[in-house]
């Protein structure tokens, strides 16, 4: 028998029918029962050492997890550029390859990764740099106060030595062994074309006048009374460090220190002249 709104419906029990007294019972029956949400946590992460540290995975899940991890490791290790096999080759083959590179190419190779930097910037790799430098015709020998990577950087690179500066280091000073961009060169160097200009510039460094008068002549590539067409240039950092060292010495030790500064200056002047003649 069909159900009608607001009327009593009676159905025979023998015919598998139910009797309702009012409309609310009919609506309650007609409304679908909401499915119960499954609040049980998934077992996908249970027993997996990668998700639950200290747990003991079952055999089946442990094998599946290990297989997945091995696949990920294989895929990650399989990625790489054209130089991905460099680290897997024997040392003698790597050395032989580097012997065909220019000094600047070796430096750029060292900058490609931390691993190559650690290999090439060690004393054990010094023969690689020496071989590369020897392959360049008419190139002066590496100065004794520089190592081979420093010499290559000063000779070939265009990087400014100021930390954080990204400008091109167009001004290389072979006497002070530094390279700066035009802006940093003006801020890191002091001096002038005349004695008065030089004294005015050096007076702002905070060095005692008595100390400055003793060490000043050993930190410029031209004599104080030299020709005016070549300016007097002083590397501020080196000058300040020498002032601190000089003031910490006694009178006898100070004399020996000034003698060492004179020998160092003469050597730098000679190297500077030889290098500039080669570059010209």
The CA-CA distance between the termini, in Å, is 114 Å
Largest sheet: 2 strands, antiparallel
Radius of gyration: 40 Å
* Number of helical segments with 4 or more residues: 12
Strand content: 5-15%
Helix and strand arrangement:
Elements: H1 23-30, H2 59-78, H3 91-98, H4 103-110, H5 114-120, H6 126-134, H7 148-156, E1 171-173, E2 178-180, H8 182-188, E3 189-192, H9 195-202, H10 209-215, E4 232-235, H11 236-247, H12 251-279
Antiparallel strand pairs: 1-2, 3-4
How would you sum up this structure, described in words?
The protein is mainly α. The protein is built from twelve helices and four strands, in the order αααααααββαβααβαα. It has helices at 23-30, 59-78, 91-98, 103-110, 114-120, 126-134, 148-156, 182-188, 195-202, 209-215, 236-247, 251-279, and strands at 171-173, 178-180, 189-192, 232-235. A two-stranded antiparallel ribbon has the order 1-2. α4 crosses α5. The model is unreliable at 6-20, 41-59, 63-77 and 224-229 (pLDDT under 50).
Provide tags for this entry.
280 residues, mainly alpha, two-stranded antiparallel ribbon, two-stranded antiparallel sheet, 4 strands
Task: Briefly say what this structure is.
The protein is built from twelve helices and four strands, in the order αααααααββαβααβαα. With 280 residues, it is mainly alpha-helical.
